[in-house]
Backbone:
């Protein structure tokens, strides 16, 4: 029996109906991010108009259209802020519409901008002011048609779709360069200890992304997070009354307490890798990566990485709901998600090759919410089910997950979502915030 529909998530900047087409400038000339005539690029200009933002429109739509089964639980969690389950239409409604159409052999379901290509939607935006409709259509096209790319996963469109779906702000390249020119951040030694190990077995990544590029990106992120911490640091108190800061338990990374912003933690190098691979510039990768960290999963890099540990507990909980036999077998073997799924949760499955499949899975996650990575991990476990149950030492099986098959994982994930109770799903939505 299907549970109530799951809300899809996202917000994109306000678009203008028309704008000049900009050729991608070099950092040596205009020192600005490469731009398309896109929803992302037009967002900054729209801020100058009296037109309400897409987020404002979306919030009003939610207040009118939240389902009765969702409204009570959402109202209990006002502190979670913008999350990836806040947009309409519901993910399951959209997916069920597509599935029903395919099963009946009929034409594809009609969305307001369904007649346009994904590239056209991203490049030009809605010409009728229907921002929610354009976003709905873009999400549908991501899940139904995918983002066209070569066998190696390269696409001229993908990074711009990601920037829109992640609601990333416009950032001058000079801002990124300023962070680079500050030199080594407090986390520099830890970064250098991680970068040389990033996706070492992936020839596609090693051929396209240099270690120097990864170091620069992570060092800039570390400075940005460091600055945010400094801004929120309380005034100094006398040494006698100053409390000690707890150390980072997982990696020994920079300490953090309470509500402070995140810090650099081990594993961020792998999480950053797909952005550098997909982007056309380091500055693009930076603004997308920073938006992911600070808007979508800040609890993954805050304190003792509490968001990651909450996610791991949810992997166990969801697996027990959808496959009790498999969950009990792993429990009997002393295998909780904390033991085998930590990298998959922290890196949104980027730790599992091949990289082109990671990119395609991320298309789905950014369209409907990175929180769905929890369900994607459970989907991988159910795909491995027979191999795990038939192994006397399943820990050996779980040391490395099978190569990603994004289409299969997405299909299984959609099926699992229907089985998750509302309260557990809400926990999934908010676990990384």
Residues:
């Amino acid at each position: 029996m299907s549970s109530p529909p799951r809300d899809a998530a996202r917000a994109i900047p306000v678009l203008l109906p028309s704008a000049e087409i900009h050729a991608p400038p070099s950092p040596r000339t205009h020192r600005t991010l490469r731009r398309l005539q896109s929803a992302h690029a037009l967002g900054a200009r729209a801020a100058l108009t009296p037109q309400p933002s897409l987020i404002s429109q979306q919030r009003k739509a939610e207040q009118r259209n939240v389902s009765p089964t969702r409204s009570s639980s959402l109202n209990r969690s006002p502190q979670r802020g913008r999350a990836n389950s806040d947009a309409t239409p519901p993910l399951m409604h959209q997916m069920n519409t597509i599935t029903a159409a395919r099963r009946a052999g009929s034409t594809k379901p009609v969305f307001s901008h369904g007649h346009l290509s994904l590239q056209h939607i991203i490049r030009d935006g809605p010409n009728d002011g229907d921002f929610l409709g354009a976003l709905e259509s873009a999400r549908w096209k991501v899940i139904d048609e995918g983002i066209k790319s070569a066998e190696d996963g390269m696409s001229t469109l993908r990074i711009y779709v990601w920037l829109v779906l992640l609601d990333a702000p416009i950032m001058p390249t000079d801002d990124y360069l300023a962070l680079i020119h500050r030199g080594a951040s407090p986390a520099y030694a830890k970064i250098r200890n991680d970068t040389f190990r990033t996706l070492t077995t992936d020839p596609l990544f090693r051929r396209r992304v240099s270690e120097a590029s990864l170091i620069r990106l992570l060092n800039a992120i570390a400075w940005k997070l460091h600055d945010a911490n400094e801004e929120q640091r309380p005034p100094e108190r006398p040494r006698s009354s100053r409390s000690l800061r707890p150390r980072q338990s997982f990696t020994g990374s920079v300490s953090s307490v309470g509500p402070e912003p995140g810090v650099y933690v081990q594993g961020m190098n792998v999480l950053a890798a797909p952005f550098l691979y997909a982007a056309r510039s380091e500055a693009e990768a930076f603004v997308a990566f920073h938006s992911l960290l600070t808007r979508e999963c800040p609890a993954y890099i805050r304190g003792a990485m509490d968001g990651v540990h909450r996610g791991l507990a949810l992997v166990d909980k969801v697996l027990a709901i959808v496959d009790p036999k498999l969950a009990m077998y792993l429990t009997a073997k002393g295998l909780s998600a904390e033991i085998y799924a930590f990298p998959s949760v922290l890196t949104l499955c980027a730790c599992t090759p091949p990289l082109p499949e990671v990119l395609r899975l991320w298309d789905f996650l950014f369209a409907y919410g990175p929180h769905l990575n929890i369900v994607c991990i459970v989907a991988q476990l159910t795909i491995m089910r027979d191999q795990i149950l038939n192994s006397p030492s399943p820990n050996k099986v779980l040391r490395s997950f099978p190569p990603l098959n994004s289409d299969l994982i997405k299909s299984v994930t959609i099926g699992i979502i229907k089985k998750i109770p509302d309260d557990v799903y809400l926990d999934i939505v908010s676990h990384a915030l």
